[in-house]
Amino acid sequence: MNEYMKKALDLACQNLETKVGGPFGACIVKDGKIIAASSNHVILDHDPTAHAEILAIREAGRVLQTHDLSGCELYTTCYPCPMCLSAIIWSNIRTVYYGNTKEDASKIGFRDDFIYSYFQSLPCSELIHFHQVSHEDTIKSFQEYEKDQEKITY
Amino acid sequence: MNEYMKKALDLACQNLETKVGGPFGACIVKDGKIIAASSNHVILDHDPTAHAEILAIREAGRVLQTHDLSGCELYTTCYPCPMCLSAIIWSNIRTVYYGNTKEDASKIGFRDDFIYSYFQSLPCSELIHFHQVSHEDTIKSFQEYEKDQEKITY
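ok -> structure tokens follow
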């Protein structure tokens, strides 16, 4: 195991003792150096978004002072859930090393695999009740945004 | 437009001036009361995960002191991206009111629709390069977790 996965796994194993969240760890590497690392903090932080990968991405953004993590690599002890995988895409990370699979996560009670199935079954799934409202008002905010010549895209 | 969507849209429109992030706003309602609200902060916070819905979910968790937002409803000025939709599922929010569509977001330069397509094309897409490593080590952390009788699942 290389030093990057070892860092991620050490963090995951710490959670088995501290119980601040599920048994997951992640780190982000740029130019061979770990620039951010975290375990899962869902329980301690009362934050359903506080997966290890999300927290590592947020830290990497602070360290590099940009939302664009192009050129970074992510090491995670478990294949990222759809939330984290989407965050990886938004952050422009292109390479992910993982240990456990989403099926492994499912076996110990996490819904990663279930949420992947949900995305495959869209738009028919009834899991979330969606209601479109006020489109005639909300679309104006997009029309204004479109006119801005100096906007930063991401 | 009801007061909840108005709150979300006011926040989205503020971003057109402040440019702290894209033109998106969200709020979370419990028992008829807004308990959390945010606009997108990706640019200001250097945080690719700082979508309006994610920030509102994080705030609601802090307010309610739990990662479980069952019974809450989300209002968002735009249909949530896959990251935010996954966060909604993790948080146990079941009802979402939205204004703009993901196709509207695509038209003004955001990748929401692209990421939805990516999930539909899995596992074949080459967008992210995945490498499984060290499974024989990482699986031990899951085996230990499974033995814990007092774990909190989420």
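The longest strand of chain A covers residues 33-39.
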